[in-house]
Design brief:
Domain PucR C-terminal helix-turn-helix: 476-534
Structural class: alpha/beta
Strand order of the largest sheet: 2-7-6-5-4
Domain Purine catabolism PurC-like: 12-126
InterPro entries: CdaR-like_regulators, CdaR_GGDEF, PucR_C-HTH_dom, PucR_dom
Shape: elongated
Protein name: Purine catabolism regulatory protein
Distance between the termini: 73 Å
Mean pLDDT: 84
Domain CdaR GGDEF-like: 284-424
Length: 546
């Protein structure tokens, strides 16, 4: 098991290095490779290890340098490889002399050779032999760590692990960064699978679809701050999973998580700058159009184009407290997930889409050269809504759609309209998609909210019906609302309310008796219509403070 130092000197980075002492010990066997860059590492060494070091831990301690080779010889190591240049200009004479005396190979590492250049080919050779991982887990873990810390990214790390394990690995990401993905793209994890991985926090056997086939796999979660941000999927080649596979994947998922952390930190900082810049654009603070267009180009945005504006808000649910909603919407994890899901809605047409956050809402700018028909704009918003709703069953979303306006000023106008929709649109529906044009009469009535005239008009019409319903447990307001919604059809109104037609007739008579307004009179009917709109405005105002 292992490889002789003499043979190892022809493999990988060692082929560029030279033996400066201890040639008599070149037949010593290397069974693992490790790094000494902290004091007292020697006490933890096991036999037959090739030790790599810059001598940093002992560079200022002459006594430690004098005793180093003797202690390593007693520990039974296979050889000592020293990188000169950074901390020591040359290998100390005491180390050379002791190496020759004890027959311990002393190797000078070439200046252009990294630890990884030595570790990777040797560990691949050693780990290809039977049961190496079980016997030398520390060396294997250190090699993987060195590989991860080399800065070569996810692909280099996974490719090395694939060569050792003899199977296929893929990395999936909940984040938009493409450099975090690797290998055959698996079908998205189901909600149940995500919950299983989040609960387990370690590799789990499960079936996944890879290349169109459902295959048994070992799937490991990539977790950061209790959030599932990605996964590693391992498929063995024509064999059962072994305990070694689980340990390798488990170690790999920790190191891949470091790569995700680096990418997330970079993306979060960049998103913050984007949000700050877009806050000025959305709120109309654009003193210099040319400068703003140029700034936008640095983020990859073309503000010489025209955009449709959508605003996404989290709607309050009966089982979710307002405080919880606000805390969730403000967290970086929440914003990342929201951003990822919103981009998924544009996965076939992502070019030029701008996504930013302002206050608690997400704002999406979709490139649109010409004014889209209202149904087209609504369909796009509905696609976004479906994508978000499929990810968060416990939350509800309202997407406001502004009208199309040209240029940078058009973005500002569209955003103001979206804000207006979110403010006034609650009466229309508790969640879903609302276009600015749907506000209709609410836009006019909202200008007079709280005025004596509006309150008086309500009290003279629908207010009387609401009071009667409260006092007698009746349904006059609901009946009137349904009657107007069904365009005055008695039969359809009765069907919607699950009552007899005669019941609807009786209630309409009661409405006329209480308000003096007949649904058969155009002026009176208009007054009742307006009264219902005022009532919805009052209810929406009240819900903001509940």
């Amino acid at each position: 098991m292992g490889i002789a130092v003499r043979e190892a000197m022809h493999i990988g980075g060692l082929a560029r290095c030279k033996v400066v002492a201890g040639a008599d010990g070149l037949d010593r066997t290397i069974e693992a490779v490790t790094v000494m860059e902290v004091p007292d590492v020697i006490r933890w060494l096991k036999g037959n290890v090739l030790l790599l070091t810059s001598l940093y831990p002992v560079k200022d301690d002459e006594e430690a340098i004098e005793n180093l080779v003797g202690r390593l010889h007693m520990a039974g190591i296979a050889g000592l490889a020293i990188k000169t240049g950074q901390y020591v200009r040359h290998i100390p004479d005491a180390i050379v002399a002791a190496g020759n005396r004890l027959g311990l190979p002393i190797i000078e590492i070439d200046k252009e050779t990294t630890y990884l250049d030595i570790m990777t080919p040797l560990m691949e050779y050693i780990l290809s032999e039977p049961r190496p991982l079980e016997e030398q887990p520390d060396s294997y873990n250190q090699w993987l760590t060195e590989l991860a810390m080399s800065g070569k990214g996810v692909a280099a790390l996974i490719e090395a692990v694939e060569r050792l394990m003899g199977g296929e690995l893929s990395v999936g990401s909940e984040l938009p960064a493409r450099e975090l993905r690797y290998g055959t793209e698996a079908a998205p994890l189901t909600v149940l699978q995500k919950k299983q991985l989040t609960a387990a926090k370690r590799p789990v056997r499960m079936e996944r679809r890879l290349g169109g086939q459902a295959l048994p796999c070992l799937v490991a979660p990539i977790m950061l701050s209790e959030e599932l941000v990605g996964d590693i999927t391992y498929r063995a080649s024509n064999r059962e999973f072994r305990e070694r596979d689980i340990r390798v994947v488990e170690r790999t998922m920790i190191l891949i998580a470091l790569e995700f952390l680096k990418a997330i930190t970079t993306a979060d900082v960049e998103q913050t700058f984007k949000d700050q810049f877009m806050a000025d654009v959305l709120q109309g603070r654009v003193p210099d159009v040319t400068e703003t267009i140029e700034k936008g180009r640095r983020f990859g945005w073309d503000f010489t184009s025209h955009y449709a504006v959508y605003c996404v808000a989290v709607s309050r649910r009966a089982d979710s407290s307002e405080r919880r909603i606000r805390e969730t919407a403000a967290s970086p994890q929440w914003k990342r997930r929201l951003l990822h899901q919103a981009r998924a809605a544009f996965r076939f047409d992502e070019a030029g889409v701008v996504i930013t956050f302002l206050k608690q809402d997400m704002v999406i700018l979709y490139p649109q050269a010409y004014p889209p028909a209202r149904p087209t704009a609504v369909r796009q918003a509905e696609a976004i809504h479906r994508q978000l709703a499929s990810e968060w069953e416990e939350l509800s979303f309202t997407i406001a759609v502004g009208r199309w306006h040209p240029g940078l000023e058009g973005i500002h106008k569209g955003y103001l309209e979206c804000c207006r929709v979110l403010e006034l649109g609650k009466p229309l529906r508790s969640s879903g998609v609302i276009h600015y044009d749907e506000l209709g009469l609410f836009r006019l009535l909202s200008e007079s909210r709280g005025s004596n005239e509006l309150e008086s008009l309500y009290a003279e019409s629908v207010g009387k019906l609401a009071d009667y319903d409260a006092a007698h447990g009746a349904n006059l307001v609901e009946t009137l609302t349904r009657y107007f919604a069904q365009n005055g059809s008695l039969a359809e109104t009765a069907e919607k309310l699950f009552v007899h037609v005669n019941t609807v007739k009786y209630r309409l008579q009661k409405i006329e008796q209480l308000t003096g307004c007949s649904v058969n009179d155009a002026e009176a009917r208009l007054l009742l219509h307006v009264g219902l709109k005022i009532r919805l405005l009052r209810l929406s105002e009240r819900s903001e403070y509940d």
